Prior knowledge:
Blueprint: E1 2-8, H1 14-28, E2 37-41, H2 44-55, E3 64-68, H3 69-79, H4 81-86, H5 96-106, H6 112-119, E4 122-126, H7 134-142, E5 147-152, H8 165-173, E6 175-179, H9 188-199, E7 211-216, H10 219-232, E8 239-243, H11 251-262, E9 265-266, E10 272-273, H12 284-295, E11 304-306, H13 307-316, H14 320-331, E12 337-339, H15 340-357, E13 365-369, H16 370-373, E14 378-385, H17 393-404, E15 407-416, H18 426-429
Parallel strand pairs: 1-5, 1-6, 2-3, 2-4, 4-5, 7-15, 8-13, 8-14, 14-15
Antiparallel strand pairs: 9-10, 11-12
Helix pairs in contact: 3-5, 5-7, 9-17, 10-11, 12-15, 13-14
Amino acid sequence: MGLLLFEGAAGTGKTTRALAAARDHVQEDPLDEDQRVLGLTKHHGSRRRMEAALKGPQGIGRSVDCLTLDSFAWHLVRRWRSLARDLGIVVREGDFQATSSAAGRLLQEREVGPWVARKYPLLVVDEMQDCKGGEVDLLANLAPHLACICAADAFQDLSGDRDNPAISWAESVGEVERLGFNYRTRRQGLLAAADALREGRRVESDRDTGFEVVSAPRAPAGGGRVSWRLLVWSKYKETAVISATAAGRSPFVTDLLRWVGDNKAKGKNTSTAGPFSVPWESREADLCDRLRSALDLPDDPQSRVSCADLVVAARNAKAQDVGNWARKQQTVGGRSTLSAGEVAEQLERIVHRRRAFGPRRLGRCFALTVHQAKNREFDSVIVLWPMTIRSDIEQQRRLLYNAVTRARHQALVVVEDPKRNRLEGPLFAGRSE
């Protein structure tokens, strides 16, 4: 047993090195027939990539379970619910921090940790910097029972905390290997911009080297820039338009994307670019609201809903997974009605599973937030940086860093700048406030 932490900037291959170390570990100490490797991460994007890599040709094989920390914590609490009850632990599904804290407390009991280790002798944790509070306790109480391989970068913690508790704990109990070479890109502009943001220096703009920052006094001006980049970059598989604010929060972002979708940007010699459709990647809450509306679910959580009616409504809404669940409540549970609140909770779980395991169908160009883009990578990136960002300079640097470092080939940052002075502000000029 022991802990190995791979630590490095975005693109330095932390996850790749962690997975290679896991493969080497299994080759040196093969799994028993009933044992598996446990992969944990905070977000579903990194969970999907970890699962594909571990189960792929260069991975470990099929003996892998990759879960989010929330899912694993809930599984542990449910499995040991009698013990939890004896300890006075009561948690509700969906209360993620309470569930993680409860799982960490259960792992302090002498029978729980060894029980996990019997099935999972090896733990792989990706993007560990995102672990907070009870999640750190969960890992700290689990690690003594099995071999643990982790990957993390404190600067990619978007909370803005200068001290990262998960990394501090891992560094105090395990071996650390720090990585420096960037495998995601060799474009000098992207590398220089990433280094400048991490170090608080001036961010230099140079389109020829892969990174450019432009100011836009109004949305149409920014929209023209975006349209021309989408045309020039059309040879690439996908371009992500990453906004520093959520959909609908910034008039600049909303108006810019609408302009790109409705207008042609004019160039020299009557040439034009666009219009281009840039759909937003949906949030789980939005998908839940749409599904509730399609099923005509009552707002009052105490209202009763007929199982038979719900099956019909799910069929009409083409929501087979909802219909299967409602039918199971009838045939297996012997229930004729359900509360609207219970149905709503189940819809949240169904949408969560769809997002976690279903395919993505957004096309070549789409918009998403920095938090949605986290742990992913794209051929090209366009970052929209409006005036409405309320975080401090430290957190802004991390937000912009995480957006820019998603790019493999090139990135454009469009800054809302009505007074044409933001590029000389502390974020881009490298001065402190």
